[in-house]
Write a structure and sequence with these properties.
The complex is a heterodimer of chains A (329) and B (84).
Chain A (H helix, E strand, L loop, with lengths): L1 E5 L8 H13 L3 E6 L1 H8 L9 E5 L10 H7 L4 H10 L5 E4 L3 H12 L11 E5 L5 E5 L9 H17 L7 E5 L10 H12 L4 E6 L11 E3 L2 H26 L11 H4 L1 E3 L6 E5 L5 H17 L1 H23 L1
Parallel strand pairs in A: 1-2, 1-4, 2-3, 4-11, 6-9, 7-8, 7-9
Antiparallel strand pairs in A: 5-6, 10-11
Helix pairs in contact in A: 1-10, 3-5, 4-5, 6-7, 6-11
Chain B lengths: L1 H15 L19 H15 L14 H19 L1
Helix pairs in contact in B: 1-2, 1-3
The chains are: A alpha/beta (329), B mainly alpha (84).
């Protein structure tokens, strides 16, 4: 297994990215390709003791900043680290790409370089949250698409459902739409329109709206929202977990293991779904521990074959819809 | 130019699932909810069709379909003239 790592993406690049990468090769099988200015990366790597055969370098002279328009930057900066790293996946030289840089640029690179699966307009980021039953719930989209069209939320519902069934082994996943009330009439224009699409889609087990306080209550297997809401939900959860953890730590002097389940550095990254390759999005603020786990997440997706699983599921979905249409016709 | 404009409208309308007739020279990308990915996708599709690479302009300078298509058309004409 070989994974490409965008060494220049993120608030703490390249030093923390390189440190996380070295940590990964020290504890796992497989190899990495660090992408960035190779002279600088050689210097960053020089203090570490690691198997040199397992970390290759690939030259990229540019970086796409967080403030740049992603799609345009992608055209303008053809030698950007995220562009070069994603091309390595497209060319079959790496099986996945990991980045802590601009999510928009990573998504644009995924769309324009790797390509989308049929019927998917915008790839969302899916992440698995722990729930009250000791299982996991998929939250989708957690930040790739801040402005969405109703039909894109339907596509997120489909992809989230496929992910929950194929990766988390949940048969007929319950899909819910995050809103400000459970009733069908609650929500803003986007969620009201998306509700109707999700409700009327024959292959989805749509269970209606879900409110913020029920996200961990195992009332759904897939929680659908646009990337604006999803990112705020995710960061609020992380911030709240940290706040509660600090309080408990002050009172008891130690933390229950449970809090590790809500620590983003232990998750590292989450996959962009609906694309023809594996692209793992990590927090921009990731340090070495989070980078390490982000690479682990990529390796896990490669091992589980999530692209093939998504493709197979989409084909089955198309067949089911076609059969249903024929019966109705 | 009209044919090129209609092709660009068709490509963008297909992406947005809207009627191409709803896009005029004055239509702003914002008014039809076309983001930068939609616009770049349209430009890249035109590049494939015309086998050309358009220069990387700042899309903010071209807020309407007419302004952008005119700039792309002018570049096509320039390339044609250079190749004569």
């Amino acid at each position: 297994m070989r994974i490409a790592v965008d060494a220049m993406g993120g608030d703490h690049a390249p030093s923390e990215i390189v440190a996380g990468a070295v940590q990964w090769v020290q504890h796992n099988e497989g190899s990495l390709i660090l992408v960035g200015p190779t002279t600088q990366l050689e210097k960053e790597l020089s203090p570490y003791d690691y198997d040199h055969a397992r970390i290759e370098l690939a030259e990229a002279s540019q970086v796409i900043g967080m403030e740049e328009s992603p799609a345009q930057a992608l055209r303008r900066k053809k030698d950007a680290s995220i562009v070069v790293a994603t091309k390595l996946v497209k060319e079959g030289k790496a099986e996945a790409v990991v980045s802590c840089g601009s999510t928009g640029a990573q998504m644009a690179a995924a769309i324009f370089i790797l390509g989308r699966l049929p019927g998917i307009e915008r790839p969302p980021i899916a992440t698995a949250l722990p729930n009250s039953k000791g299982s996991q719930t998929v939250l989708i989209d957690v930040g790739a698409n801040v402005d969405c069209r109703p039909r894109q939320l339907l596509q997120f519902g489909l992809l989230g459902s496929l992910y929950a069934s194929s990766v988390l082994n949940k048969p007929q996943p319950r899909v819910a739409l995050i809103s400000n009330g459970q009733e069908e009439g609650k929500g803003n224009q986007l969620t009201l329109e998306a509700y109707a699409l999700l409700k009327n889609h024959s292959s989805l087990n749509f269970v209606g709206n879900i409110e913020g306080r029920e996200l961990f209550a195992d009332q759904a297997d897939v929680l659908v929202c646009d990337g604006f809401v999803g990112n705020i939900v995710l960061k609020t959860i992380e911030g709240m977990a940290m706040f509660v953890a600090q309080g408990i730590s002050r009172e008891l002097g130690k933390l229950p293991n449970f809090f590790a389940e809500l620590d983003y550095t232990q998750y590292g990254g989450a996959p962009l779904l609906g694309i023809e390759g594996i692209s793992i999005v990590c927090h921009g603020s990731s340090r070495r521990e989070a980078v390490y786990h982000g690479i682990c997440a990529a390796a896990d997706c490669v091992e589980k074959g999530i692209i093939e699983l998504q493709k197979e599921s989409l084909i089955m979905l198309e067949k089911a819809i076609s059969n249903q249409n024929n019966q109705e016709g | 130019m009209q044919e090129f404009f209609e092709l660009a409208c068709k490509l963008l309308a297909e992406q947005l699932e809207i009627d191409p007739a709803d896009i005029t020279m004055e239509t702003t990308f914002e008014s039809i909810d076309a983001d930068s990915i939609d616009v770049v996708e349209m430009i890249m599709a035109l590049e494939d069709i015309y086998d050309v690479e358009f220069p990387e302009e700042d899309l903010e300078d071209y807020p309407t379909m007419g302004l952008l298509v005119k700039a792309l058309w002018d570049y096509l004409e320039q390339v044609k003239n250079e190749n004569k």
